[in-house]
Write a structure and sequence with these properties.
mainly alpha, 10 helices, about 85% helix, globular
């Protein structure tokens, strides 16, 4: 898997200095939200590296990364909502599947939109939560608001990561992938820690 990923990332890097790479960032970020194929974080990081080298413009890299991710999150939500009956019968029909869906619904109810922000930084997790949001019919206006916040934060962190540390990544794509993954988990941990502290403070004051 790693050699295949390296080959794909090498190919993406060869295109990263081309203005067409803006479109590639958008498309991969959108597809990764629906069917995780390639780490979209790494694609945005490559855009940030190209921006640091003067080939692309960082704000546009971030904008198109966020726009693609937001479009993909909305597609995933509506797929879950439109195919609710089919998914419940085919994917979540067994006891384990029902338990997972009930857990997702309970977490979305308890943790609200911040779960969408946390999941955006976990490859694969973003798809599970956005589709589950549709299946369980979470309020769409709230979904849109938090998905937009999550996508902007996600694209900004990935783009800036590539822009700032581009020299360290340009010859080692595996390092870029691993750092993107670790940084994503770190952001998720910080969000969860903030949520835990907020609830603890609220409980102690009541």
């Amino acid at each position: 898997l790693i050699p295949m990923l390296e080959t794909l990332l090498d190919w993406l890097e060869t295109l990263s200095s081309n203005p067409w790479f803006y479109l590639i960032i958008f498309v991969i970020a959108m597809l990764d939200s629906v069917v995780p194929i390639v780490p979209s974080e790494t694609t945005v990081i490559l855009g940030g590296i190209a921006a640091g080298q003067g080939n692309l413009w960082l704000p546009l890299v971030i904008l198109l990364g966020a726009a693609g991710a937001f479009a993909g999150d909305n597609i995933a939500y509506w797929l879950g909502r439109r195919l609710e009956g089919f998914l419940r019968r085919r994917v979540f029909s067994r006891e384990k599947g029902k338990a997972r869906l009930e857990w997702a619904e309970r977490q979305l109810r308890l943790r609200g939109g911040m779960l969408l922000v946390t999941a955006r930084f976990i490859p694969g997790g973003r798809t599970a939560i956005t589709v589950s949001s549709g299946i369980t019919r979470q309020p769409y206006p709230r979904f849109v608001a938090f998905a937009l916040l999550a996508c902007v934060l996600w694209a900004t962190y990935a783009g800036v990561l590539g822009f700032v540390f581009g020299d360290q990544f340009k010859d080692d794509h595996t390092k870029a992938f691993l750092l993107a993954f670790v940084a994503a988990l770190s952001v998720s941990a910080l969000v969860e820690a903030g949520r835990w502290l907020r609830h603890r403070t609220r409980d102690s004051s009541s």
